[in-house]
Amino acid sequence: MNAFKLGIALVWHKKTWAIALMAMVLVPILFPYLTPYEYNNGVLQPARAQAAWGIALTLGMLWGLYVAADLGAYFRRTQLADYFYSTGVSKLRLMGQCWLVPVICIVPLVLLAVLVCLLFCTPSHFFEAKLWRQTNLQFATCYLLTFLPLSALALALSNRFSALIGYMVSVGLAVYGFYGVGYLEQLLQKQTIPFLDFIWHISPHYHVGDLTSRLVFKMGSLTGSVFFQTSLYLLAVGIFLITGAIIIFRGKMQRTIWQFICVKRFTPALLLLSLILFGVSNVSRQSEVNPLSVFGSAYGKTIAMGMQSPIELIWHEGANDHHEEAENLEAGELHMHVVEKKVDYPNNLKGFITHLDDQKKARTNPLANRKLHRSFIRGTVERKIKLAWRMDPAHYDNYANYHFFLTESGVAERERNYQHAISIAEQTLHHCRRHVDDPQAMITASAAAQNVVDVMLTFQQREVAYDTCEPWFAVAQEHLERGALLVSSERFPYPPSYRESMLANLKRLQAVQQGLITKSQELSAQL
Q1: CB 408 within 8 A of CB 471
Q2: Is the pTM of this model over 0.85?
């Protein structure tokens, strides 16, 4: 029996493959029905494709790399590697046989994801269907170029050290390459730090191979040159990791360090090849981190719906120490009413947990610190409102709450907030224009165009004329008319309450439009 058959028997005996298979089959079937598909049946296909590739990425990290780490630790723990070496098996051959086991486990994940997308999610239009097939094949290639080298690294690390080290290092590298490096990039956009910039350049940019957003938003396949560069880059990183895995994998005792590094004179050639491919390829920076493309997708809409609540409730959540009373106190004055306040809670477990949570947020320092306190509250509120907006920018309440907070929160740096509000309105308008068949998006787009005018008239009254605002009025009116047409249409079986709320928003925005036109004309006449 060789190492490959032994590893396959070990995986089969542990039955972890059954959980992975069940997840790959059930998640794409069940998860799309958690989205608001009743309002728009068009979200089902992208949601199913997103679920298929999302669970494939998740299982690749959590299960595929686990199989590799567990197998490497098993050979180390049982000393089977020494047995195979005694029979004349070379180090490279033994590692190759062991590596085939996680490869056999990872490849079916890709095949199932591609089959789900091609059989149940292919668009009806001929040209879109062609791009859809190409995108899935490109995604499958990038997936294999990412996870197969990582599995080799997990196998070698666990064989050299332990299963925990092999698994945690490989999973951490995957998570960092897909998402963590994006947050590092955002930090570097705000402040240039040479050391972190060096770390960014040597980091594995696995996010370039994550094509989930191209499937979710039907953006089409990558061009031939871009896909070639992406594949070269992932191949360069993969060869580098495989080379490191060959060096790390436990072999026969070597007499010298040089013999350990130059395993069969193979690793120097691999390192040189990876550097050449890395130099030929080119990695461009991304502007936004979007894990599994949740933001803006059908699942993001579902999460955003669960986050809806009045802005007053969000404002006070996490700030139960009555900050509005402390605002009348200058820094250094006594602030004792928080400590003395007593609240009766129900005599049960829920009341006890609520009491502990409130006390965690209660202020016990008798000296008021109004500026720091308000800054903390503002940051808490903004993060929650911004998260809801990022989940579903086309939702009118999400955008309206965020704009209201930026322009009416009564905090310092109003100029910066106004400029940021215009930027958010333009981003929202750009997003909504991609959903011309969604009345909610058309209403939100109209509100965004009106808010741009409102901010300009409020903040730059003396510099803004009617001619400057007129193009924005045209955009707002165009989307208002489109939204009214969709709401009155019978194409979509909207619930009566949903239709009534959209009609109310349309009526209110039409009145706001007339008021802004009148205000801009009056200000223009004064110039």
Answers
A1: no
A2: no
